[in-house]
Structure formats: structure tokens, C-alpha cells
Specification:
This protein has eight helices and seven strands; from the N terminus they run H-H-H-E-H-E-H-E-H-E-H-E-H-E-E. By secondary structure, the protein is α/β, with parallel strands linked by helices. The protein has a single domain, classed as Rossmann fold (3-Layer(aba) Sandwich), CATH 3.40.50.150. The protein has a seven-stranded mixed β-sheet with strand order 3-2-1-4-5-7-6. Helix 5 links the parallel strand 2 and strand 3. The chain starts with a helix and ends with a strand.
Length: about 210
């Protein structure tokens, strides 16, 4: 991608999501680190800058169009991988406390380096599997997010009566075609179709019906 196209890409991203210049610089550093580390470990199948901006960064920030993220105090990302969507949201919302749940130690090393390089604060990383995390933690998490990690049936363990997180909201990134089973439908509070890049996807919002 030539310099003019690269600049236009970042300008469009900044304008669409109202990203201030200092945060654009953080996103640029993040993108570069994704590309460099991806040569050593498997972080993402998307390595072109335009894809990283559209299908990782924009895909995360688009959530702000459908819920008031500035009112969320603590967010947890289940199976965060390369830190998406949690770290793009953290970059945008300075006061947001973020919990990254990831069991792969090579990816954890990447996450730790990104957090250090970007100067991010109030970020915790847990190297626990999902069920162990639910059993062993009791954090004031209001919002869980999950993108390309676990299936909703497994994620909805947060709504078991014994869960410390049964009052939290869950947002699941889904394909445009995804539809809930009758069992899942009980927990769906909203489904929103949105466009990112050239694709249509869904945000599925879950909450405890009890």
C-alpha cells in the first residue's frame, strides 16, 4: 500500500470513529506490532494493513454505535487472542478497565508487549480457561465481549445462578446469517446488523432473563 493510500485509510478510520490524533498514533503502533509479531506467532489471518484497520480495529469500535461504552467501567474479553476487540476499545476509552482472558502464553507475551508499548493502564491478563475464570474470579465486570472465540452456549455459563457475573451483559460477534437456537433466544436482548469493510455482521447482545 502506497503512502497516499495508507494516509487515506487512517484518515477515514479517524473520521468515522472520531479517533483523536494521539490515539491514531497508538492504533498505528498496534497495527505494526500485529504485523511484526504475526511473522513469529499465529495472531491473525489478516496481515494487510487495510484488513487490520477494517476487520479488527473498526470491527471493535463499531460497537460504540450501538451501546454507551463510555458508561462501562470494566470489560472482559473472552479468548482475546491478539487483544481484539478489547484493546481497540481500551485505546478509545481511557477510563475503561479491561480484563483479557487468554490461555496461549505466546499470545499473552504479545498482549503484555502491546500494553507496555501503548502505555495502557488498568489492563489485567488472566491465563485461565473460561470455566476456571468463572470459578476463580469475582471482578466488577459489567460487560463481556467475545469475538471468534467460544460459542454462545459456552459463554452463557456466566448466567448460571452460582456465577459472580450473572448480572453482566455479553456481546457476541456473529456472522450475518447467525440465528440463536430456542435455548439461546431466552438470553438474547438485541441483535444488530452492521457493516464493516465489505462485510455484514451482527452484534448479538445477551443478558440474564431472570
Amino acid at each position: 500500500m502506497n503512502k497516499n493510500k495508507t494516509e487515506a485509510l487512517w484518515e477515514s478510520f479517524a473520521e468515522t470513529y472520531k479517533v483523536p490524533a494521539e490515539k491514531v498514533a497508538q492504533f498505528k503502533t498496534y497495527a505494526t506490532m500485529l504485523q511484526e509479531w504475526n511473522e513469529k506467532i499465529n495472531l491473525t489471518a489478516l496481515t494487510e494493513l487495510s484488513d487490520i484497520v477494517s476487520y479488527h480495529f473498526a470491527d471493535a469500535l463499531a460497537l460504540s454505535h450501538y451501546m454507551p461504552l463510555e458508561k462501562v467501567h470494566m470489560l472482559a474479553d473472552v479468548g482475546t487472542g491478539a487483544g481484539i476487540p478489547a484493546l481497540p476499545l481500551k485505546i478509545m476509552y481511557d477510563d475503561l478497565a479491561v480484563v483479557l482472558i487468554e490461555v496461549n502464553h505466546k499470545r499473552i507475551a504479545f498482549l503484555e508487549e502491546v500494553v507496555r508499548a501503548l502505555g495502557l493502564t488498568h489492563v489485567q491478563i488472566f491465563d485461565l480457561d473460561w470455566r476456571t475464570f468463572l470459578r476463580q474470579t469475582d471482578l466488577p465486570i459489567e460487560l463481556f465481549v467475545a469475538r471468534a472465540s467460544l460459542q454462545p452456549e459456552e459463554l452463557l455459563r456466566i448466567y448460571k445462578p452460582s456465577s459472580a457475573y450473572k448480572e453482566a451483559q455479553l456481546v457476541y460477534w456473529a456472522s450475518q446469517q447467525w440465528q440463536p437456537t430456542s435455548q439461546l433466544q431466552l438470553y438474547v436482548s438485541k441483535q444488530v446488523t452492521y457493516e464493516v469493510g465489505s462485510k455484514k455482521r451482527q452484534y448479538v447482545f445477551f443478558s440474564n432473563p431472570a
